[in-house]
Amino acid sequence: MIKGVNRQVVEVRETQSDYFERILFFVRPEYAGVSEGKIRERAGIIASGAGSVPATKLRGKTTTVRIAVVLSLLCGIALGILIGRMCF
Description:
About 50% of the residues lie in helices and about 10% in strands. It is mainly α. Strands 1-2 form a two-stranded antiparallel ribbon.
């Protein structure tokens, strides 16, 4: 529910996303004096990333994969050392 009647709203119709056809941005009152072009430009930048995976999600998966690779490598080295000591 939207409270208040004196709100500046920016609608972006070309979202470049498969998920969203339109996005509505409600401008904070302290930025109501900023030029319309600048507000629309910023809204367009945000809208263009609306359908992509957030960078924080990617970072978490990348870190998890790196940890798994390092642990696998360490286990392989340890196993190699054990096998080497048993043979000699």
